Amino acid sequence: MLDVLLLRRTLARSPVRWVMHMSMFYGFLVLAALSGISLLLDIVEHYNLAGYGHEAVMAKDMMALPFDIFGYLLLIGATIAISRRILIKFVRDNTTAYDALLIGSVFLITVTGFYAEWMRGNSFLVGDMFEYSIYAPHFALIHTLLALGLFAFILPWSKYIHVIATPMTLIANRGGE
Predict the structure, then answer these.
(1) Phi/psi of residue 132, each to 5°?
(2) CA–CA distance, 56 with 48 (Å, rounded to integer)
(3) Range list of H helices, the chain
(4) At a CB cut-off of 8 Å and minimum separation 6, what does 114 contact?
(5) What is the domain-level CATH number for residue 78?
(6) Per-residue pLDDT tens for 33-51?
(7) Is the pLDDT of residue 20 over 90?
């Protein structure tokens, strides 16, 4: 289980790759969970389910900091991945256009997520600098469609399936290959 949660095998191979993978793994994992919770809170707020609309707004406000922290964590991981492909000759020589598209997509989705949050005034670190922009819903929709497109239509048929397959294989084999 520690091989899955701490990526010990990756750490043994390369500390830089370990930081990259940990940042991207936990950034994705937590942002996906927070997005699901945020969707539920949006529904509760919009329909004022059981009279908890106000509490849903307060809960969403408290989620701004975790969204920022894990968003920056994902951004760090994607930046390391791009940097390795630009700066390290061996990695650059073995990078295909397919790899560049996938890493570039992750980076783009992360940046559009930040921009959508900034425009909505939900960013803890930036605050309400861009709050109430009339374009905020449009950027949120672009971010959502890009994220769903990558993770629903591309991930299952790409090499990114290792995000799901490798942990399941390690758990099923109790740490073995």
Answers:
(1) 70, 25
(2) 9
(3) 2-6, 8-13, 15-47, 53-62, 64-87, 89-93, 97-120, 136-148, 162-172
(4) 71, 75, 123
(5) 1.20.950
(6) 999 998 899 899 888 888 8
(7) yes
**163, amino acid identity:** V
- Inter-residue contact 26 to 5 (CB < 8 Å): no
Tokens of 68: 């920022």
Q: Is 125 inside any structural domain?
A: yes
Structure-token pair, residue 153? 């239509």
Q: What is the count of structural domains for the chain?
A: 1
3-state secondary structure of 48: coil
Q: Which two tokens stand for residue 126?
A: 């930036």
Least Cα distance to 118 among 127, 110, 109 occurs for 127
What predicted TM-score, i.e. pTM, was given to this entire model? Answer: 0.86
CA 62 to chain centre: 19
Expressed in angstroms, the distance from the first to the final Cα of the chain is 13
